[in-house]
Amino acid sequence: MSTKIAICPGSFDPPTDGHINIIKRARKQFDKIIVAIAKNTSKNTIFTTEERIEMLREIFKKCKDIEVDSFDGLLVDYCRKIGCHTLVRGIRNMSDYEYEFQMALANKTLYPELEFIYLMTEGQYSHLSSSIIKELIMLGGTSAGMCHPIVEKKLKEKLKK
Ligand code: COA
Rounded to whole angstroms, how far apart are CA atoms 159 and 155? Predict the structure, then answer.
């Protein structure tokens, strides 16, 4: 029997509880999930790739079926390289939908065998984003219920620097 693998890609700068929720729900449908961190995105990331890997590995350290990896360049090339044909992403609202739709079409043109699975956010995460969490912590707020404690800790360390 073949192993069912899916990739959950993102910039994860930093990962939010919304991301974690999507990854944990995707886990129920697959034998293995690869959380793939994009090294270079159009975003100016606050965390290095190594820091994002470290946070996600800590968050999922008890989940033997979740692997954390990073990739450079095109997502489709990474999928081809590791032989994975399924992507999972979360959708919070209509603007996510439009963005995902455009990305899916572009990726599908580049890699026709690739399929996409979208999970609707659970209500309590629909307002969350990496930017909101960064701003909250930077301005002295608390992010309880929005991100894992390791993320808050790492953001506070950044702030001190
Ligand atoms: N709950 C809460 N927040 C969520 C979320 C969820 N379920 N899903 C997404 N978000 C938020 C994130 O917090 C992030 O917020 P921000 O805009 O404030 O930073 C934002 O939505 C999206 O971030 P993320 O999910 O980390 O992914 P991304 O959209 O930055 O990543 C890639 C997109 C990496 C998949 C895409 O850029 C890519 O494939 N890059 C590789 C290059 C490539 O192949 N390009 C061609 C694509 S066609």
Answer: 6
